[in-house]
Amino acid sequence: MSLKGKSVLVSGAGKGIGRTTAVLLAGKGAEIVALTRSAEDLQSLKEEIGCRTLVVDLADPAAALAAAEEAMPVDYLVNCAGTTILESFLDTSVESFDFLHAVNTRAALILSQAYARDRLAKGLGGAIVNVSSLSSSFGFADHTAYCASKGALDAMTRVMANELGRKGIRVNAVNPTVTLTPMAVKAWSDPAKSGPLLSRIPLGRFIEPAEVGEVIAFLLSDAASMVNGVALPVDGGFSVN
């Protein structure tokens, strides 16, 4: 699954799955264009892998579009930017709901449109991977806005795969369960909280960020040349239990 000579725009590349994916893809030969809102995170990533960097607040649609257009041209796109706010259903605010959709769903729309338009104008195909979540299909408590945003991302992925696939651009999603980023390690360190979820995972553990990154690399690569429109669980079997 070499990506030598290919360029990849990775949003949310400053931390977590996005950063791990950017480093992993660079290790497979890709040139990375890294996009996130933290200049400090991007600087450290640039020092690590020598990538191009763009600082942007993806909750701002005009800024997101400007950054996407500045990033072009690239061969592939990974929409990994995401955030969450934990609120019960009855306490979920309109502001939280709108913010999570802006970052988790709308930003992927804006970046994908800019990418696809650039590729099609050049008569080229390509591949997009949207980093979704198992929350798109399961109603986890206190995740109303997050689950809704990821469900919308999966739905959008299917439409993108249908329309863009006919033009030579494959679109897929990856749907991990709890992934052990530093933030998640802290959030799920209490066995009383993690135990019930772990008991539903046949493989008996949460996901390492690199395990998600390897699936993303596969979906971008020619090894997945006929994979289009899937929402691929990376969950150790949680979905079958």
Automatic annotation (TrEMBL):
SUPFAM superfamilies: NAD(P)-binding Rossmann-fold domains (SSF51735). InterPro entries: KR_dom (IPR057326), L-xylulose/Carbonyl_redctase (IPR051737), NAD(P)-bd_dom_sf (IPR036291), Sc_DH/Rdtase_CS (IPR020904), SDR_fam (IPR002347). Gene3D superfamilies: NAD(P)-binding Rossmann-like Domain. It holds the Pfam family adh_short_C2. The keyword NADP applies. The keyword NADP applies. SMART domains: PKS_KR (SM00822). One of its GO terms (biological process) is xylulose metabolic process. Signal peptide: none annotated. Keywords: NADP. One of its GO terms (molecular function) is carbonyl reductase (NADPH) activity. Residues 6-177 form the Ketoreductase domain. Belongs to the short-chain dehydrogenases/reductases (SDR) family. PANTHER family: D-ERYTHRULOSE REDUCTASE (PTHR44252), D-ERYTHRULOSE REDUCTASE-RELATED (PTHR44252:SF3). Homotetramer. This is NAD(P)-dependent dehydrogenase, short-chain alcohol dehydrogenase family. It comes from Faunimonas pinastri. The lineage of its organism: Bacteria, Pseudomonadati, Pseudomonadota, Alphaproteobacteria, Hyphomicrobiales.
